[in-house]
Design goal:
Blueprint (H helix, E strand, L loop, with lengths): L1 H21 L13 E4 L3 E22 L2 E28 L2 E19 L9 E20 L2 E20 L2 E24 L2 E21 L2 E22 L4 E4 L1
Antiparallel strand pairs: 1-10, 2-3, 2-9, 3-4, 4-5, 5-6, 6-7, 7-8, 8-9
């Protein structure tokens, strides 16, 4: 009996390593690669904007009835009010740098006036109204994923209506479309696929221009009017294409 048990134990000891060797090895599985989502600012976009503006207008009388005179300062006033409009543009991104071109057009309601300084006995009031503003700019920005800070610059245009009034009665008028330059900056946040919101500021250098005022087609005076505009807007943009790319 003892010999039988010893023989059985010996056979089990020899069979155990062989059985372990016959087991299949556990397959090796490579860990999955993490994929990070990165906001892509490239593509065409269209959007809307709204905000406010203030225009500084300084008038110098340069002629009366078509006859030139030594310029006389008539004073300055601010024309303030609301702006609302839209923009369309294209951006392309290289690493974290973003470049773009944009056209923006806004309806405006910037109004202001002051009593002409030399008119103590003849209280003529000079009035300015800006009813349209356009910007044509290039952009350079830097992106932190879905946050973009940018600067912009280019050409600007305003449509102006000037008038002189006495006791509320319009005496003469002048209209003009004036071209100048602009610089600005903004910060934009991509909050959903294709959608972004921005806050932007622009300063417009519109320079000095002489306008001839008329009443019933008759030249009444000429004024050299210097104009600058500051405007701040909130913008909502929709970018066509896929705004998110995978980065391994």
């Amino acid at each position: 009996m003892k010999k039988l048990l010893l023989a059985s134990a010996s056979l089990f000891a020899l069979a155990a390593p062989a059985s372990a060797a016959d087991l299949a090895a556990r397959p090796y599985t490579k860990a999955p690669v993490a994929v990070a989502s990165v906001y892509n600012w490239s593509g065409f976009y269209i959007g809307a904007n709204a905000g406010g503006g203030s225009s500084r207008n300084c008038w110098d009388l340069t002629s009366v009835g078509g006859v030139a005179i030594t310029p006389v300062a008539e004073g300055c006033h601010n024309a303030t009010g609301a702006v609302v409009g839209g923009q369309v543009g294209y951006r392309w991104q290289s690493a974290s740098w973003v470049f773009g071109l944009e056209a923006q057009g806004d309806w405006a309601d910037l109004k202001g006036s002051n009593t002409s300084s030399p008119a103590a006995l003849f209280p003529l009031v000079n009035n300015t109204k800006i009813d349209a503003i356009g910007l044509f700019t290039g952009q350079v920005g830097y992106a932190w994923n879905n946050v973009l800070w940018y600067v912009k610059g280019g050409a600007a245009v305003t449509h102006n209506k000037f008038s002189g009034t006495l006791a509320g009665v319009t005496l003469d008028t002048a209209n003009e479309t004036r071209w100048g330059g602009t610089v600005g900056t903004g910060i934009e946040f991509g909050f959903a696929p294709n959608w972004s919101v921005a806050v932007e500021y622009n300063h417009l250098f519109m320079g000095k221009h002489t306008d001839n005022f008329t009443f019933l087609g008759v030249n009444t005076r000429g004024d050299s009017i210097k104009q600058d505009v500051d405007m701040g807007t909130v913008r909502l943009n929709y970018t066509f294409g896929g705004p998110v790319v995978a980065k391994y």
